[in-house]
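Input structure tokens:
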């Protein structure tokens, strides 16, 4: 994992009685890529299905881990979800600038829905960003990702319409931000 975030992040492990949040292991890259694509497909977030142009980006966890912090939620050895946290200098930053961190590609195994996995992953990103001295966090989300929107709002994120953008004609991404 590249050192593109706060010192010591690679050894961070948080847990509760149900699951742990920790950095992804190289041996988990393929499984997390598959989980992420499956989550987006089942959620209806890949307009072109497996042929959607975003699918390879979701699947390429090795690239994400080399350029950002990738966290996973695990229950024993079972992957429940994952998220990418990008810091300045990372090619994965889409909205963020200097002094900001960006949450990307939050995904939860549909079978693990309702366990608080997405909330725990997003909260871990906020904690890492605070520890790094980040001034603000940003993220973008499809308008239809209402479960994720609830998670972000509970963490204090607010809509940032001035940063909304469209990567494709049929896709409008909503921006959210959180001052730290």
């Amino acid at each position: 994992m590249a050192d593109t975030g706060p010192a010591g992040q690679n050894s961070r492990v948080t847990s509760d009685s149900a699951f742990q949040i920790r950095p992804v292991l190289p041996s988990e890259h393929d499984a997390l890529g598959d989980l992420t694509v499956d989550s987006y497909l089942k959620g209806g977030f890949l307009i072109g299905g497996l042929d959607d142009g975003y699918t390879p980006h979701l699947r390429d966890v090795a690239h994400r881990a080399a350029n950002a912090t990738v966290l996973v939620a695990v229950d024993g050895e079972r992957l429940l979800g994952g998220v990418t946290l990008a810091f300045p200098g990372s090619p994965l930053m889409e909205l963020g600038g200097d002094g900001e961190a960006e949450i990307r590609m939050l995904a939860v195994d549909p079978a693990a829905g309702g366990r608080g996995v997405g909330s725990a992953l997003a909260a871990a990103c906020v904690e890492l960003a605070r520890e790094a001295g980040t001034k603000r966090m940003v993220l973008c989300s499809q308008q239809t990702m209402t479960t994720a929107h609830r998670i972000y709002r509970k963490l204090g994120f607010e809509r940032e319409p001035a940063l909304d953008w469209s990567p494709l004609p049929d896709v409008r991404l909503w921006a959210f931000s959180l001052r730290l």
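The helical segments are 29-42, 55-59, 61-67, 117-131, 146-154. DSSP finds five helices and nine strands in the chain.
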